[in-house]
Specification:
Elements: H1 3-23, H2 29-34, H3 41-52, H4 55-68, H5 74-98, H6 103-110, H7 113-145, H8 150-198, H9 202-208, H10 224-238, H11 242-249, H12 254-271, H13 273-285, H14 295-303, H15 306-340, H16 349-370, H17 377-386, H18 389-401, H19 407-427, H20 433-462
Helix pairs in contact: 1-8, 1-15, 3-8, 3-11, 3-12, 3-15, 4-13, 4-15, 5-10, 5-11, 5-12, 6-7, 6-18, 7-8, 7-15, 7-16, 7-17, 7-19, 8-13, 8-15, 8-16, 10-17, 10-18, 14-15, 15-16, 18-20, 19-20
Length: 467
């Protein structure tokens, strides 16, 4: 009997059961997407941590360190930990005070319904790619622990994740995140200790680490702009993601939102060092491994007994499920709450929840298709972070902290930056598309300010509702 696969199945069934139980408490779309704004300190902290600590944090980071050393840790754990810190420092209280369901709600209040819809359309692809990365990582775990080939394993993973997410919404996600966060920490500690002891103890293990792997500032003849780009992608790209904003909005109070983000960032930073250490030790065990993203599950399978391996695989599954369900919920929230519901004003709350669950189903199907677009989990996550996130961050800063510009400025800036990102990323393959995207968004917004008053006056004059 395959006890590892059996353990994964039991773990997933348990998570689905939690979702089913919590689903009985869901009466409105606010319950579904924001847990009734009821998250306390523990649920809030671990929900942020577990949502962010996903496939790239475990599998992707250890694989990156195995390939290039700790210079490959610009995103994890440092970039994303700093991202959460910035949320706690500058944005959590202000966003909570706005009492929004999704970030585009802020665009509707500050700019216009058109800006709201464009923001939602910009944000949705990012979450879909991120979900695809998590599903791929889940599939790799199933592949390592069973006889399924990679494609079949990814398909099974997608089905499990979609079913799991549809039931309980954010409240079930938060309860599971608490369980999953603890499982992640325990699983990583177990594997790290076993690997160190397998090499003869801490001192012997340290001697096995390749010295060149410890060069944090090692570069591959890249320019300063490219190096800045590596750091800015996780920070600028994820700071205003719906996944993070929803945790802030779902907190009981602004104080809980701020403190939860601070605690989550420190936990993320500390726990994030374990995948880095495992990647550094990977050379001692598999110096010629071709599929570097497989190093963590492979080491666990080879060096843990059945009981400990089941615990560890459960931790990896926890890390992935806690991230992917959040991304699918985020896509459903953006698509239904901001794009669909405004055109269906008479929907009952029961019907809204049903549509939200269908939105999760469709989002999962699209994410499943995206899963096959890349072989690298980390590459997919970094693409997701750079897609739309920097633009949204610039616009949120204008919306929250200034009265400069209006909906014309917002529409021009978002449209311009989207074109610049696509062109720099795919057409000319610029080395720093995120930096150019931010500069184009900022510049185009400010350039419209001298003219927006006249443009808005002309638009309002021509509007039928003024007749």
């Amino acid at each position: 009997m395959n006890w590892e696969l059996f353990g994964i199945c039991c773990y997933v069934i348990g998570m689905v059961y939690v979702g089913y139980v919590v689903s009985k408490k869901i009466k409105t779309d606010d319950d579904y997407f924001l847990a009734g704004r009821s998250l306390g300190p523990f649920l809030g902290t671990f929900s942020i941590f577990a949502t962010w600590f996903g496939a790239e944090s475990c599998i992707g980071t250890s694989g990156n360190v195995l390939r290039v050393g700790i210079s490959g840790t610009h995103a994890d754990p440092f970039g994303y930990a700093l991202c959460i810190m910035l949320m706690a420092m500058f944005f959590a209280k202000v966003l909570w005070d706005k009492q929004i369901t999704t970030l585009p709600d802020l665009f509707r209040k500050r700019f216009s319904p058109s800006a709201e819809k464009l923001a939602a359309l910009i944000m949705i692809p990012s979450s879909l790619v991120w979900a695809g990365a998590q599903i791929r990582a889940f599939g790799q775990i199933i592949h390592v622990t069973s006889d399924f080939n990679v494609n079949v394993a990814i398909s099974v993973a997608a089905l499990v994740v979609i079913i799991y997410t549809m039931f309980g919404g954010l409240l079930a996600d938060a309860y599971n995140d608490l369980i999953q966060g603890v499982a992640i920490i325990i699983g990583l500690i177990i594997l790290f200790v076993v690997l160190v002891m397998g090499l003869g103890g801490p001192e012997a293990a340290w001697q096995m680490v390749k010295p060149e792997s410890l060069d944090f500032f090692k570069t591959e003849e890249t320019s300063w702009m490219a190096r800045w780009e590596m750091w800015l992608v996780p920070i600028l790209g994820s700071l205003m993601s719906q996944e993070l904003v929803s945790r802030v909005s779902a907190s009981k109070s602004a104080k809980v939102a701020v403190h939860s983000a601070w605690r989550a960032s420190f936990i993320y930073l500390i726990v994030g060092f374990f995948p880095v250490a495992i990647g550094l030790l990977g050379h001692a065990y598999h110096p010629n491994l071709s599929e570097s993203d497989s190093i963590m599950p492979l080491l666990a399978k080879q060096h843990l007994n059945v009981f400990l391996y089941v615990i560890f695989v459960g931790a990896l599954v926890a890390a992935i499920l806690s991230t992917v369900d959040s991304t699918l919920l985020a896509v459903s929230a953006l698509a239904t709450h901001n794009l669909l519901y405004p055109h269906l004003p008479n929907l009952s709350e029961k019907r809204k929840v049903l549509i939200a669950r269908v939105g999760v189903l469709l989002s999962g199907a699209v994410a499943y298709g995206i899963t096959f677009s890349s072989d690298s989990v980390t590459e997919m996550v970094e693409t997701a972070s750079s897609l739309g996130g920097p633009t949204i961050l610039v616009m949120v800063c204008f919306a929250l902290f200034t009265k400069i510009g209006n909906h014309v400025s917002a529409l021009v800036a978002m449209s311009t930056s989207l074109v610049v990102w696509f062109t720099s990323h795919f057409v000319i393959e610029a080395e720093a598309p995120v930096i150019w995207t931010v500069l184009s968004c900022l510049g185009s917004y400010l350039l419209t300010v001298p003219f927006v008053s006249k443009v808005e006056e002309a638009v309002l004059t021509a509007s039928p509702q003024d007749n």
